[in-house]
Design goal:
This protein is an all-alpha fold. The protein is 79% helix and 0% strand. It has one domain.
Length: 155
């Protein structure tokens, strides 16, 4: 039977180096930082895309409201423009959480300090908590719409 420790961090898993170049860094922390560092570009990309989406929604909502006001547009058009604006703001908070998450990962990678890893995980927690609450609210609204549709068809 082999004398190898099955729970030891392999050279491949940790990328062969520790974060911040510190040879005294705990191998488990080093591996965690390495794995977080590999996700950082994707986290930043999604954060940037969310900010771009929010910006486009703000611009689109403003143009819809402006067009409806100038052209004496229908109330439905004004309502659609008014709905775009709050939804745009719903994208900003989670996008900022992702951007802070990516920055904390960069700090952890540069310093190898646990405080930066903790900050990264905190920002990730904030992101997922917000998304979870938002999804719960949307699902609740869907249920209310379905119930209302069923009741309206019965009566």
């Amino acid at each position: 039977m082999s004398e190898q420790n099955p729970f030891a961090v392999s050279q491949h898993a940790s990328g062969g180096h520790s974060a911040g170049g510190d040879p005294n860094l705990d191998p488990s922390l080093s591996q965690l930082i390495q794995l977080l560092t590999e996700t950082r570009p994707w986290v930043r990309l999604v954060g940037i895309l969310m900010l771009i989406g929010a910006s486009l929604m703000l611009i689109g909502g403003a143009f819809i409201l402006l067009a409806a006001a100038m052209g004496g547009g229908a109330a439905q058009v004004s309502i659609m423009g008014a709905i775009y604006l709050p939804f745009a703001f719903l994208y900003i908070y989670p996008a900022m959480c992702l951007m802070k998450y990516a920055s904390a990962i960069s700090d952890a990678s540069a310093t190898g300090q646990m405080v930066h890893v903790n900050e990264a995980i905190l920002q990730q927690k904030k992101f997922w908590r917000f998304i979870g609450i938002l999804i719960s609210i949307v699902l609740g609204i869907y249920v209310l719409i379905i119930v209302a549709a069923v009741l309206m068809s019965v009566f």
